[in-house]
Write a sequence for this structure.
């Protein structure tokens, strides 16, 4: 069976996990836009104060930090710092042909850890709570990379 075929259940597991995390990354960007529009705040560039269809009466206060918007921006940045490593490690992990059950536990475990991290971040849980979910996801990615490396080298 070809490793890069959707007839390969390992690849299907990877595709589902990647699709969910892509939607998470892109959805977080839209969440930030929603929060900006809801609060009429959180703009970041001076040129954003030019009048337009969605900002008919701009004001300098719109450039001030707004924690509601910034929290979403920080969540998005955190996703962009962590999820692409999963995409890369997951692909080489699939190519290393691990047992299906292991791939499913790790990949869906990563998705669940990132979802839990997002909920913890959105609800302003303590750093320890967020760090727990980050650690789970990080260890999964590290394991997948090491597993693929071991298969490739040995």
């Amino acid at each position: 069976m070809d490793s890069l075929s959707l007839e390969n259940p390992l690849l299907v597991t990877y595709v589902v996990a990647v699709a969910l995390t892509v939607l998470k990354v892109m959805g977080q960007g839209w969440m930030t836009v929603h929060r900006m529009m809801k609060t009429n705040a959180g703009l970041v560039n001076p040129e954003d104060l030019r009048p337009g269809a969605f900002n008919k009466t701009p004001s300098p206060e719109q450039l001030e930090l707004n924690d509601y918007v910034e929290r979403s921006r920080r969540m998005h940045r955190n996703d962009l710092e962590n999820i692409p490593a999963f995409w890369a490690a997951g692909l080489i992990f699939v190519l290393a042909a691990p047992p299906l059950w292991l791939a499913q536990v790790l990949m869906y475990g990563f998705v669940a850890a990132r979802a839990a991290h997002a909920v913890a971040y959105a609800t302003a849980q303590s750093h320890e709570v967020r760090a727990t979910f980050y650690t789970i996801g990080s260890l999964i990615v590290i394991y997948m990379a090491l597993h693929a490396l071991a298969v490739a080298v040995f």
Notes: The longest helix spans residues 9-39. Residues 9-33+67-153 form a domain with the Four Helix Bundle (Hemerythrin (Met), subunit A) fold (CATH 1.20.120.550).
